[in-house]
Each structure stands twice: as C-alpha cells, then as structure tokens.
Specification:
By secondary structure, the chain is α+β, with helices and mostly antiparallel strands. The protein folds into two domains: about 90 residues, Archaeosine Trna-guanine Transglycosylase, Chain: A, domain 4; about 100 residues, Winged helix-like DNA-binding domain superfamily/Winged helix DNA-binding domain (Arc Repressor Mutant, subunit A). Helices cover about 45% and strands about 15% of the residues. The chain has nine helices and six strands, in the order H-E-E-E-H-H-E-H-H-H-H-H-E-E-H. The strands form two sheets. The chain has a four-stranded antiparallel beta sheet. The chain has a two-stranded antiparallel sheet with strand order 5-6. It starts with 10 loop residues before the first helix and ends with a helix. About 20% of the residues are buried.
Length: about 200
Amino acid sequence: MRKNPHVLIRPAELAAIHSGDVDLAFRRWDRPRLRVGTRMRTGIGLVEVTSVDRVALKSITGAEAQRAGAASVKELLTLLAHRPDSPIFRVGLRYAGPDPRIALRADAELTADERDYLVRRLQRLDDASPRGPWTQAALAIIARRPATRAADLAEELGRDLVTFKRDVRKLKELGLTESLEVGYRLSPRALALDRAAP
C-alpha cells in the first residue's frame, strides 16, 4: 500500500472514483509505473489498480474518456499532450475502502500484545536510525505542541524538516499520529499507549 507519484489524481477525480463515476486514468509513461493490485492511499482512502494496458492514442473512445473524467476524447488528448513521444497507458482504478490507518489510530483499546508490539516497533525504529533514538522525542513534542507547523517542530528538535516529516510518517503508519491541516496530533491509540506505559 503506497502513495505513487506517477499516478497523481486530482481531488475532483478522486471524488468521482469514490462515487464510481470515474474508473480509468490515462498516463504517458516510458514504461508501466503501476502493477495490477497495487493499492494507493489517497485523500478519499484506498484506490486500487485493476488494470494497466498500453493503448494506441487512436483507440481511445469517447466512453473511455468520460470514464477518465474528461468531457471528450479531445479534452483527454489535451491533458495527454505533454511528452508526446511517450506511450499511453490506460489504468483501471476503483475505490477500495477507507484508509485502514484511520480505524487503527482510533483504536484506543490496546491489548497487552498490541502494546508490546508497538513498543518493539518503536524500539526498532530507534535502533535503525543513524541519528539515534527519536521516537519518544517526536511523540512528546507532538503531544505538547499539536497543530504546530512541522518546520517549527523540527527546528525545536534540531532536526531537518525532510527527515523529521519522514519519521512522523513512520509513526502515522503505526496509527500513533494524525496529520492536521497544520501540523499533527497524537491519536487515541498513541494516548492509550502512553497511559499503558509502565
């Protein structure tokens, strides 16, 4: 499950995928950049790739253009006008449900096994870091300064912004943080882990 920069989807298209009105995308790539079965996290939740086929430009029909969110083949071809020498791929897409991290971060009823698992995962993240332990400091500053710009948090910790944000995403994968319009906050799961700490 991942985000994929090669199939960026506009918010209006995501909404149409969620409703089922859009189930195709057309992209110019040098080679296929996605595999069937890939699930991507997006603003609407999970979007699954159902097909990836190289197609000739002249074979694209009006119905397919509309399934890709374009009003016509002409409009779709305008969107595909960049990189005219690259082949065109037709990508089948479908809404595959909500982001599982949403349910995970809301789960504040930790069993002993779940708590032990999270503690071990955090320790492994610390052990693998060339900068040394960082997970507790990151969780602590987010708890103390929710809804604060990531740049300000990174500066207070003496961290560069890029690696700090990458580390916070690792905490998000564990269901421990939530991204806000500005900054972050701890999830109910993280608060439950803190309460359960010895």
